[in-house]
Structure formats: C-alpha cells, structure tokens
Amino acid sequence: MKEKLEYFLNAVHYCIYLEECWSQRIVNKFFKKLLSPIPKYLFTDSYREKYYKRLESQQKELDDYFFSKEAGQSIGLAHHLFGYFSTCYLGYFSFTFCGLYKYLTGEFSHGMLKVIIMGIPIAIGFVPFHKAVFAGDRYLEFFREFEKRDDVWRRKWKWITVAYCVGGIIVAVLGFFTMAFLTGL
Length: 185
Hints:
- The protein starts with a helix and ends with a helix.
- The chain has 185 residues and is mainly α.
- It is built from eight helices and no strands.
- The radius of gyration is 23 Å and the shape is elongated.
C-alpha cells in the first residue's frame, strides 16, 4: 500500500513538473519572439554577432535554471503546486473540524484557536505526502523511472493528475460547505 501511494504521488508530481516545463517553454518562445527585433534592428553588426554567440553559449545555463530537476524554476513551481493541491484534500478535514467545533461549543471567536484547529489536520496529514515525495529527494528516483515510460503512460497519468488537482479543489470547497452547514451560516 505504501509503495502504491508513493508511486501515485510521485507520478502526479512528475506530471505537474512536465506541464510546468511545457508552459515555461511556451513563455520562453513568446519572449524570444517579442524581444528578437531588438538585437536585429538596434545592435551594430559586430555587437549583434557577439550577442548571438553569448546567447548560444548561455543556453545551457538558462535551461538548467528553468528545467533542472534539482533546483530549476519548473521543479520549484511543481513542488508548490503539488503541495497546494495535496493540501486541498487535507483542507476538507480542517474545515469540517472547524464546523464541528463551532457546532459543539456554539462559539468560535478565538483567532488562534481557528488557526490551530485548521492547521493540525494539514500539518499531520502532509507528513506522509512529504515523506513519499520530498524526503531525501525521492522524487528524483521516480523521475528517472518515469522518463523511461512511453507516451501512452504519460497521457494516462496526465489525465489522472488533472483529476487529482480538480478533485482537490472540489474536496476543499465541499469541506467549506460542510463547515458552513455545521455552523449554520
């Protein structure tokens, strides 16, 4: 069971990373086309030649900055998005516990108490997510395995990832409505 959960979470994380890389490539192409007239029309011939040589030599550094699996911009965004969507599932319990507390006690005016009641399920629940994906950079092992997979596997997991993300949002909203129902809003 633990291995299946790790595989699932890492596959979702990998697909989020792939989508981040795809969107970053689109943005990079857009800005290259947008800014391409500057060296073409405003630089002198000698400077333009130096500029294009430097740009070509720095392309590897730019690719590492945007797409590196260890510390690139795309993997950083993938980490955050994976965390956000995973936290949505845990948010259901936070909202429900808040609603139950108000339903049982009739009062819920202490701000710090709200933070504690909402934070505990998220903090406790995120530990398995963190251990399965981020502890010791486990995701890198899974990424190496997933890169060997074919396009059919990627398409399948892309749709599973979309369902996971949309499902997380739906579950969080459902938790909010559960809290509203229990508190009588």
